[in-house]
Design goal:
The structure holds two protein chains of two kinds. Chain A is mostly helical. Chain A is built from 14 helices and no strands. By secondary structure, chain B is mainly alpha-helical. A two-stranded antiparallel ribbon of chain B has the order 1-2. Classes of the chains: A mainly alpha, B mainly alpha.
């Protein structure tokens, strides 16, 4: 019990040794049942996407009688424009958003965390304040602005704000991380005549890869899943993201092609699932330390 | 800092006063310019995309504006109509409050219970944690809303499962009495991120407190009530505020499940969905702006209320 602070975060609590065998079995049984309940809808959707069409509704089982990928083909070409186009559009918007968020938010975060300038605390408080404001308040004037700029039906309204650090949440996340980097490092560099820019570029960013990665992954996932922004700004099917494509597919097929619908739904979840699989630790630490909402 | 030294040396011809003033300006510049240069993108965004639009939106909320003719000042008419003569607003309010009041407590209770079970030092914690978190990560997407629509359809999976038990279920999503509860269920299913925050909070509670309590003969229930719960109140508070604000802003599932209508009979007309319909369906931009400011007001009142009452129940360890 004496191995100090590190235990609090990493090691399981000490009562692991004291619990009786039956209690342990009971907890595992509950957790396994809970996990199955949580995963069942997802697994069922994946299984429905590879089922022969006539079997979909009749069966609550997760194992299809035979594997049939034809739903994927039907779904892919189910609309006038193929899902390939929607995937590409989503990918472009998501990648540009990631770049915008990482660059713009890290610049602002470096200023807030390290540089001294008049009004810093004031602007920091304002920045935190913007986190509380629901975007609905700025929605309509922004729409009018982008409409007048001729940006509707382009990706610009979805991407340009990110290069202006509009996702202030990530600034906050990065400020928290930057403050943890020893100040001696940049003070020493400053003594040696390093400019603020060089310190940011050569010291802060390389030391901040974990938080930059966390911000990048969350940016990607949230943008990939975003429905409201594309719904408002993209009306031409050629510009649709994957979420809009899926929604159009729902409306156009209603009940006729559930197989194709589930196949495309499954496909849209694949990128997020892979991020989850490979970066799970970063995501969970990101949430645990900052209390991210999703 | 070395730059500051360099700039203080005045240059030849200029008068002493001018040189001093210029020196001061240069000093101010070198001291503040880097900070503001790094902040520049955010500052442009703040003024151009947040503050400016917010002010304009406040103005628009007092106008009649359809995007074709220019905005026409109508005074407080929009707000008066919202408060007194808009049955759809009343419906949206009722739906949203019901959703918030049901989904947040259930979600947090599940999150806390599962976090406590996982905190018992179970083997395979990372795997369980990942499984319970997965729905939170995927849940915001259209695909999951589509799935939910099928699960709770008349011939959907839930009714197929109920049929095994000999129960004939209704079409949950197209029945006005049940449709909202399917959305509550969808929200509760995504309890993963508050669970992770609870788990981190539980890890902070020193185990020797429980050992001392056990030695004194305190039951597990008493330990939960007297140690876990009080020490966890800051985390509970945080989760409750974040989840509530989030629930007020929910949009996508209701939009997909009701096909954008908020039906049947407005039973899933979330506040944001109504706002969207007014703004981008009916192009009543002035009215929609007023709705947006009412939403801000509600969230602000709720947040202020939470913070004011928090000192009576949130335990901060000094």
């Amino acid at each position: 019990m004496t191995n100090g602070i590190t235990t609090a975060v990493t090691a399981p609590p000490s009562d692991i040794t004291k619990r009786s065998f039956p209690t342990s079995i009971a907890i595992h049984t509950l957790l396994i049942l809970g996990s199955l309940l949580m995963l069942y809808p997802l697994l069922w959707m994946v299984s429905a996407s590879v089922r022969p069409e006539n079997e979909i509704f009749s069966s609550t089982s997760l194992i299809p009688s035979s594997i049939d990928f034809s739903s994927y083909l039907r779904g892919w070409i189910g609309l006038d424009i193929t899902f390939g186009r929607f995937f590409w559009n989503s990918l472009v918007i998501s990648i540009l958003t990631v770049i915008g968020n990482v660059v713009a938010c890290s610049l602002a975060a470096y200023a807030f965390a390290r540089l001294r300038f008049a009004g810093r605390n004031f602007w920091f408080a304002i920045m935190l304040g913007t986190l509380m404001i629901p975007y609905h308040v700025t929605l309509i004037p922004q729409y009018v602005l982008f409409l007048n700029l001729g940006w509707v039906n382009t990706i610009l309204p979805l991407v340009v704000p990110k290069f202006l650090a509009s996702d202030a949440f990530f600034i906050f996340l990065m400020v928290q991380f930057f403050r943890g980097i020893p100040r001696e490092l940049d003070e020493a560099a400053m003594m040696d005549g390093c400019s603020a820019w060089r310190i940011y570029w050569k010291i802060m960013l390389p030391l901040s890869l974990p938080v930059l990665a966390t911000a990048a992954i969350f940016s990607f996932i949230w943008t990939w899943d975003d429905f409201f922004g594309p719904l408002i700004y993209l009306n031409d099917m050629n510009t649709y993201t994957i979420q809009l494509g899926l929604r159009t597919f729902v409306d156009s097929t209603s009940a006729s092609d559930w197989g194709g619908l589930f196949a495309m739904s499954t496909l849209t979840l694949v990128p997020v699932f892979f991020f989850f699989l490979f970066f799970q630790r970063l995501l969970i630490e990101g949430i645990a330390t900052t209390g991210m909402k999703r | 800092m070395s730059d500051v030294m360099r700039t203080t040396a005045p240059e030849g011809i200029k008068s002493e006063y001018g040189a001093a003033a210029q020196g001061r300006f240069k000093r101010l510049w070198t001291a503040n310019a880097p900070g503001y240069l790094f902040l520049l993108p955010w500052l442009i965004g703040f003024f151009g995309l947040t503050l400016g639009p917010a002010v304009i939106s406040l103005y628009l909320s007092f106008t009649d504006f359809d995007m074709i003719r220019s905005a026409e000042w109508v005074g407080a008419a929009n707000y008066v109509r919202i408060a007194t003569a808009d049955p759809k607003f009343a419906a949206a309010m009722r739906v949203t409050l019901t959703y918030v009041v049901l989904s947040v407590p259930f979600k947090l209770t599940f999150a806390l219970l599962v976090a406590m079970a996982l905190n018992k030092g179970v083997r395979g914690l990372p795997l369980y944690r990942a499984i319970f978190y997965l729905p939170s990560l995927l849940g915001g997407s259209v695909a999951i809303a589509v799935l939910w629509r099928q699960l709770f359809a008349g011939d959907g999976l839930v009714n197929a499962a109920l049929a095994h038990l000999g129960i004939q279920g209704p079409s949950w999503i197209s029945h006005p009495s049940y449709s909202l509860y399917t959305l509550v269920a969808l929200s509760v299913w995504q309890f993963g991120s508050p669970m992770i925050i609870f788990l981190a909070g539980l890890r902070q509670i020193p185990t020797d407190m429980y050992e001392a309590a056990s030695l004194d003969g305190a039951s597990k229930f008493r330990q939960f009530y007297k140690i876990t719960l009080p020490l966890l109140t800051p985390v509970i508070f945080f989760n409750a505020v974040v989840q509530t604000i989030d629930a007020f802003k929910a949009f996508t599932p209701a939009f997909i499940i009701s096909g954008g209508t908020g039906g049947p009979i407005n039973s899933t007309l979330f506040y944001t969905l109504y706002l969207y319909q007014e703004a981008f369906g009916n192009f009543r931009m002035g009215y929609a702006s007023a709705l947006a400011w009412i939403l801000v007001l509600i969230i602000a009142i709720f947040t202020a209320f939470s913070f004011l009452t928090s000192r009576y129940w949130v335990h901060y360890d000094d």
